[in-house]
Model the fold of this input.
Amino acid sequence: DTAVSQTPKYLVTQMGNDKSIKCEQNLGHDTMYWYKQDSKKFLKIMFSYNNKELIINETVPNRFSPKSPDKAHLNLHINSLELGDSAVYFCASSLTTWGLQETQYFGPGTRLLVL
Amino acid sequence: AQSVAQPEDQVNVAEGNPLTVKCTYSVSGNPYLFWYVQYPNRGLQFLLKYITGDNLVKGSYGFEAEFNKSQTSFHLKKPSALVSDSALYFCAVRDQAGTALIFGKGTTLSVSS
Done:
């Protein structure tokens, strides 16, 4: 069973469209994250949620809106897609929010290409 | 602010030889350090972490990392490299002001047969 899963795996879309990426974890973790990996492979946190509550909201355009219907799911909705949004988006989860020693487990990534 | 640096963009090593992928860190307080590996078109896989205790941490796939507080380093090592170890390796530190991982820029490891 996949611990952290994301759908879709690939997403190709036109500028201006709205799209969503879904993430689910079956690890029983309380905290979930979205990271962005740019074309140079640089990874940066976007958001984190603890049991459906927003914890981290980095300097991300408000076109990006995370939604957590329950603690096992964290979706990412992107409005008015721009060329610069092309990247790989990784979902991750950890047992709790504040355990600094805890491991974060990552999903396979969603490769978004905006044309 | 916490940060990690991976000074090498690429490391090349012959199969069977030992490998080292370097990482240095800057933190206020105790460091919580992680290594992840990313194979082509795949997600990040956890290799190992340093929390406290022994300076030599053993992880998955025969990898280990040596924590050195005086040199603020956390280098990833393997005694004998395999071609299948070729991948992108990330060092990360836990952001003590929040919950996120702060990643280095990554080091591409290429193991030749």
User: Anything to note?
Assistant: The longest strand of chain B covers residues 87-94. The interface with chain A takes residues 30, 32, 34, 36, 38, 41-46, 49, 51, 88, 90, 94-96, 98-103, 105-106 of chain B (CB under 8 Å). The mean pLDDT of chain B is 93.
